[in-house]
Amino acid sequence: MVVGAGFSGIGAAVQLREAGFDDVLVLEKGTHLGGTWRDNTYPGCACDVPSTLYSYSFTPDTAWSRVFAGQQEILAYLQATAERYRIGDVLRCGVQVLGARWERSAGRWLLETSDGPYSTAVLVLATGPWHVPRRLEAPGIEGFDGPVFHTARWDHSVDLTGRRVTVVGGGASAVQIVPAIETRAAAVNLFQRTPQWVLPKPDLSLPTALNRLVDRLPGARSALRAGQYALQEGFGHAFRHPQAARLLEAGARAHLRLAVRDGQLRRQLTPDYRLGCKRLLTSSTFYQALSQPHVRLHPTAVSAVRGNQVVGADGTTVPTDVLIEATGFRVGELPLAKTLYGTNGQALHEAWGGEPQAYLGTTVSGFPNLFLLLGPNLLGGSTSAITVLEAQLAYLTAALAHLDRGGHRVLNVRPAAQAAHNTAVQEALATTVYNTGGCTSYYFAPTGQNTFAWPWSTGRLVRRLRHFDADAYTFDTQARPLPLPAQARPQPGDRTTTANTEQP
Fold first, then answer.
1. What is the CATH number of the domain that holds 446?
2. Residue 221's pLDDT band (boundaries 50, 70, 90)?
3. Which residues contact residue 455 at a Cβ distance below 8 angstroms, ignoring those fewer than 6 apart?
């Protein structure tokens, strides 16, 4: 059973079926697939990883229109991939998973969903870290006199033409939105509590003729992907060795100096922490947009909303017709963590105690046959999430193949293996820019521990996940099939069998 039908869930369904596990079911709470690329439809929404890297290696897209693809094109790619591999045959949209509990005697997960109970031998959570919007918490926002919405819930019925728009936030969505809306709005005010490092974004168009030429040259497409991978890893090296980040900072300062002539605005946009401490942003239009006479930066937090006035912590008041929350996501909060119960009846949220951790970011002790995709301490400021995802999927299919060959039904990572891995991760993170850069970021749990970043190279991650290490797990062959009626209800055209099977 796979929960979620974004990049992770679609990739999992494809790879599981390609590996011979035919009894796969994907549950998606939305009305259609796409994940974050379905939900985020705000103006200017695009990927900040080169398109060639931000695609499955098993289904490379040879017709990207830009170096950095936009939201609509990425969503179309996901839809085409799902159609190519007939994911619709195993996909149930409109089914929300409310919770799950491990049934020890049966060796299965019992799921509570909006469609009734399901059961499955293996549970794969593909809900993603960019899933739950972080809303603006400011006194009086409920009484705001006008439209207010989060970037991930963009209200397309609201016309911004000639309106006074206030954007709150300084991350990737704000950097993309401000340039996209400033030509329409009468005024744009951006409340940015902390300035960000922004590098130029070489977002060039890719003519069809160029794509065709690259396809005709043997090895050109793979060479291009390898080159982009090497460039991204160069950033990663700088983040792991903070002194090397100074070169990138010099480039970012030069970009700011060339784009912003106003000295005061330039000072407001200059970070006081090391580049890479927060997610690195790229844009060749953000600074230019902020330099327009009808666009104003407010380097302060929002402290309150009064009628149609947005009030800054520095006392600034801004008349506003439309309020946009570019405030990001609750990255460290796995949506099902509070209702997912393991072997001892304890919820995953309780087991973590505020510090999410997993063995290789994938399996959690006490939660058998559970696999997390893009789990704790797997990503970073330079890595393509798709590269990490595919490494995890190789590990997942190898783990299930090991279960099948050994006649086992249940695997559970050893507590000592998970603890040793997590200790090594935290020790390695201690010297990276993520931990020493002098900023506060979503990489950290409320306890102060970095639960997001992978402290080594992507190559090391891929090598580590290439082979399933059975010694890190315990296995159980005694579990019996669950004596309950099948709940995976076939739909017209479905090829899936019931979820009451021994495969995921």
1. 3.50.50.60
2. confident
3. 240, 377, 425, 428, 429, 432, 434
